[in-house]
């Protein structure tokens, strides 16, 4: 899995974030500037997490929700894939961001 800094600097990721930002700006154009300034970092965070979630969901669709690991010389087991763990965590973060921004 790539480092967060590599993902944030990826041109394709930035392009997707910018496209989504344009759509969000249209939705939020009626919000007073003071409120928008307060939630801007939450919006940026939600956009980044959304783009990463899309990438994770594609990976999960291609590779499944489990991964196999070796627990000993001849012991192989399945567990939830790291991508699924990150996906679940990011979904929780996005929900928190959306709830937090709706309270403002």
Strand content: 5-15%
Distance between the termini: 35 Å
Instruction: Bin the helical content.
Output: over 70%
Number of strands: 2
Rg from alpha-carbon coordinates: 18 Å
Count of discrete domains: 1
Q: Report the uncertain regions.
A: none
What is the overall shape?
A: elongated
DSSP summary: helix tally: 4
Largest beta-sheet details: 2 strands, antiparallel
Order of helices and strands: HHHEEH
Structural category is: mainly alpha
Strand order of the largest sheet: 1-2
What integer is the average pLDDT? 81
Topology summary:
Blueprint: H1 4-9, H2 11-27, H3 33-63, E1 66-70, E2 76-80, H4 82-102
Helix pairs in contact: 2-3, 3-4
What does this structure look like?
It is a single chain. This protein has one domain (10-102). The protein is elongated, with a radius of gyration of 18 Å. The mean pLDDT is 81. It is mainly α and 104 residues long. The longest helix has 31 residues, at 33-63. 8% of the residues are buried. It contains four helices and two strands. It has helices at residues 4-9, 11-27, 33-63, 82-102, and strands at residues 66-70, 76-80. Strands 1-2 form a two-stranded antiparallel ribbon.
Task: State the gist of this model.
This protein is mostly helical.
């Amino acid at each position: 899995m790539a480092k967060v800094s590599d993902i944030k600097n990826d041109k394709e990721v930035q392009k997707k974030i910018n496209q989504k930002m344009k759509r969000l700006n249209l939705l939020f154009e009626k919000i007073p500037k003071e409120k928008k300034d307060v939630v801007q970092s939450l919006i940026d965070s939600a956009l980044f997490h959304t783009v990463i979630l899309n990438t994770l969901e594609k990976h999960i669709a291609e590779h499944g929700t489990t991964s196999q690991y070796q627990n000993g010389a001849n012991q192989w087991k399945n567990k939830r894939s790291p991508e699924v763990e990150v996906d679940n965590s990011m979904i929780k973060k996005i929900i928190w961001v959306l709830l937090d921004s709706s309270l403002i």
